[in-house]
Amino acid sequence: MALIVQKYGGTSVANLDRIASVARRVIASRENGNDLVVVLSAMSGETDRLIDLAKKINPAPHEREMDVLISTGEQVTVALLAMILNNLSVPARSFLGSQVKIITDSAFTRARITEIEKQQITDELKRGSVVVVAGFQGVDGDGNITTLGRGGSDTTAVALAAALSADLCEIYTDVEGVYTTDPNICPNARKLEKISYDEMLEMASLGAKVLHTRSVEFAKKFSVPLVVKSSFTNGSGTIVTGEDKDMEQVVVSGIAYNVNEAKVTIRGVPDKPGIASRIFGTIADAGIIVDMIIQNVGADNSADITFTVPRSDLKKATEILDGLRGELGAAEVIADENIAKVSIVGVGMRSHAGVASEMFRALAKEGINILMISTSEIKVSCAIERKYTELAVRVLHEQFDLGDDAPLVTQEEL
Amino acid sequence: MALIVQKYGGTSVANLDRIASVARRVIASRENGNDLVVVLSAMSGETDRLIDLAKKINPAPHEREMDVLISTGEQVTVALLAMILNNLSVPARSFLGSQVKIITDSAFTRARITEIEKQQITDELKRGSVVVVAGFQGVDGDGNITTLGRGGSDTTAVALAAALSADLCEIYTDVEGVYTTDPNICPNARKLEKISYDEMLEMASLGAKVLHTRSVEFAKKFSVPLVVKSSFTNGSGTIVTGEDKDMEQVVVSGIAYNVNEAKVTIRGVPDKPGIASRIFGTIADAGIIVDMIIQNVGADNSADITFTVPRSDLKKATEILDGLRGELGAAEVIADENIAKVSIVGVGMRSHAGVASEMFRALAKEGINILMISTSEIKVSCAIERKYTELAVRVLHEQFDLGDDAPLVTQEEL
User: Fold this and answer.
1) Of the candidates B44, B15, B409, B353, which has an alpha carbon nearest to the alpha carbon of residue B234?
2) Chain A: residue whose CA lies nearest to B63
3) Cα separation of B31 and B406, whole Å?
4) A241/B contact by beta carbon, under 8 A
């Protein structure tokens, strides 16, 4: 008998029919002899509706009260699922974050889980109940309601699986699993059977929207066996797990892209110590997260520094640099919104040479100019002009032979 | 400086504009030097929407989960009011029933408050905050969410006022106060300046929908000074308080009516001991609440027993009596839906004779036949044919001189 934590996202609980279908899946797993903890998101659209309401009051709503407001969405879905299960004679109880004591810090709207008191859940499981837990929410040390930020229900599920030493954490969503790239761009994108935590982290943070980044960090840290699968079909999904020998055979596992960044360049900065620290210290103090950074020194001993920031922070970043320009003795500040980042990801890169140059060659062959390059042990990213995004993804997908020419998985209803 | 508990009903928080208007009223009272605890209902219609959702699953939804579901409505409104107040630079914090520890029994969907731990609220007030509390909800000894039944937010407010020894509990609603009768029937109905707890209880339980009955019982038990007023105007409302000398001068304070009851008669029951107990024991076991009961014995030593039940329970009550008919040796069971109950209410009756006969005479003069009579110390009720309801109310209102010939209060916007 295994203990399984299942998590269902917003589209999987979008209405009563969908919640009933979740109930059938829960019951099927239970009939296979499993103990079940089920974590739910709010109905799709509900959290946005509540946020919109709050933003009519103030574009930057009071954060403590925001969490009181938006945590109601999950409360509705867990009650409804528990009702449906009880109605089908399966004992079930819903719990809020504050009830099963998902303790977080007090960073409202983006809280981090610090502790889970598992006693109540294990007691409830022993009584034979399905335990239905509201995702996305917790409670701080003073009893205030907190939420974990967008996609936080994934983190709730993984954290519960870790705390309960669950045998498996199943993340149900509206896609079949993790793909080699976005199937909207490459129709022959292939669903991966398996991906390592590190690869998944790179894919997730690069914009593959299947799993919340923090949940993957959590899963890696506590070695939680994770599977991402569809709640609309019976596919096997994608297993997210530690690295193994097989994985290293594959040089590139997937192609990620991100069109939500913008590029800022400060030109003609005198090349002397402390300049980079001054620039990025000021940017960081403003709460702006910098991704890629490049610096090159020209013949006249002045440097150009270019970096990327989230597009929504571009205006603020440009203003900060304009303010610093005099002090730094820089020539000019240039902003560019029209960029995209494409990346190849794979743990096999660690043991294979020439992967980056193969990427550059493939892009060059299509006339795509590379604006910036950054690398990690298992990833190579290039900033390019935004208009080439789809082309670049397709070219790289082809180059690293990721396609599947078999037909797409049939969408069988459960 | 006074401590005031204010409660706003569903129509008073129906949308963001209305909640903003509540905020202005709260701030005005605060600027008069008062400490404020504000209790809110859900937006009007929201609780019904959630109940409908649950009833699609099962017409008798799982009660524990029902309370998890329907308690979200108040959570939304308290968060929004606290946001608006903070946005206007008035410190405010929202609290759920579980957070301020409104402890109840575990009778889900109709729980009763057993205890309130006031420490958190008084601490918050000392810090200068407006304390905004979700009405209608509590938490049982095991940490389960409970709700107090329809209109329960009134009870939350009165219970908080009692626990905190508040100087005043203001119940804001969409009418000007308590009227001598329904102004839709008698356009010259007069708003009462003052009414005793007991009179209010009779008026409320008879169908005057201004205050939740249980909240009045609570207010009476703990002598909470209560005022019912409109959140849409600046009227003075109606004070609900202990009896005083002035009140006893008035024989009849108001006319109530109720068209939601039905009448059942079981005819030809042998007149022997234990019959009534057998009938009403069985009816009570089915959870049906009986209101008026009359029994008369005919010449042949057989009795007719007639009683009223909520109209929604009529079918069930008739079935039960049909089942008992053989055992009791009764002749027949007759159901009648077409009745109404009209009542005169007033503490002055205690010290004035002839009030009941004056009522009967007034009805007789209009040819209205009296089907049943029941009396209490401060009330006389008559069941009549339903079609005469409005006529009877107008006749009695006139007879006891309750009308006001001054024009109705102007509906000034706040």
Assistant:
1) B409
2) A83
3) 34
4) no
Least confidently predicted of A210-214, B173-177, B178-182: A210-214
Contact A57 B87 (CB under 8 A): yes
Superfamily of domain B3-174: Acetylglutamate kinase-like (3.40.1160.10)
User: Cα angle at A269 between A263 and A270, to 5 degrees?
Assistant: 155
- For residue B64, list chain A residues with Cβ-Cβ distance below 8 A: 93
Q: A37: burial class by Cβ within 10 Å (0-12, 13-18, 19+)?
A: buried
Query: Does A126 score more than 90 pLDDT?
Result: yes
Q: Rounded to a whole number, what is the distance in Å from the CA of B69 to chain A's nearest CA?
A: 5
Q: Which residues pair with B139 in a beta bridge?
A: B103, B145
DSSP H or E run through A272 = none
Mean pLDDT over residues A50-59, rounded?
96
Residue whose C-alpha is closest to residue A145's, from A183, A179, A106, A171: A106
CA distance A20 to chain B (A): 9
B65 chain-A contacts, CB cut-off 8 A = 79-80, 82-83, 86, 94
Give A412's contacts (C-beta < 8 A, 6+ positions apart). Answer: A233, A234
Contacts of A145 in chain B (CB under 8 A): 96
Amino acid letter for position A124: E
Lowest mean pLDDT among A155-164, A287-296, B4-13, B128-137: A287-296
Task: Tell me how far apart the 2 most distant CA atoms of chain B are, in Å.
Answer: 79
Within an 8 Å CB–CB cutoff, is residue B294 touching chain A?
no
Q: Find the mean pLDDT for residues B372-380.
A: 90
pLDDT surpasses 80 at A364: yes
Q: Which residue has the tokens 């029941």?
A: B374
Better-scored residue on pLDDT, A207 or A299: A299
Collect all residues of chain A within an 8 Å Cβ-Cβ radius of residue B16.
Answer: 53, 56-57
Chain B: residue nearest A66 by CA? B79
